[in-house]
Amino acid sequence: MNPLTQTILTFVLGGGLVSFLTAIITMKYTKKQAEANAMKAMQDVYQELITDLRVDITDMRAERKELRSEVDKVKSEVDNNRKLYNELKPYKCTDLSCIHRKS
Q1: What is d(CA 55, CA 90) in angstroms, rounded to the nearest whole number?
Q2: What's the first-to-final CA gap in the chain, in angstroms?
Q3: Nearest to residue 7, comparing CAs of 22, 21, 17?
Q4: Alpha carbon of 36 to those of 10, 29, 49: distances in Å?
Q5: pLDDT at 89 over 90
Q6: What does the pLDDT look like over 32-84, one tens digit per residue?
């Protein structure tokens, strides 16, 4: 028998062909599995990002609400101070005989 023919028959009958085909199929499956795992990992990252953004938005809304109430308080104090200033403005002059001074 020819050495080339003997090598081919040994490869085919000895399980080499089956092993080769199994390896190709296994590589395709492994590649698909790796792609699926990578996509799942990316989805997990995006879900965590979305969750973090929602928490941040909630926190920012609460902080904005607190800041609005503080601004309203400051505006109220400014208005009260403006009223007091306008009431006390005529007494700014220390000269008791000043015509601009109210008694």
Answers
A1: 54
A2: 135
A3: 17
A4: 38, 10, 20
A5: no
A6: 888 999 999 999 999 999 999 999 999 999 999 999 999 999 999 999 999 99
Task: Give the pLDDT confidence score for residue 68 in this predicted structure.
Answer: 97
Which residue's structure tokens are 């000895």? 14
Burial 48-77 (b: 16+ CB within 10 A, else e): eeeeeeeeeeeeeeeeeeeeeeeeeeeeee
* Averaged pLDDT for residues 85-90: 82
Residues 6+ apart with CB under 8 A from 91: 101, 102
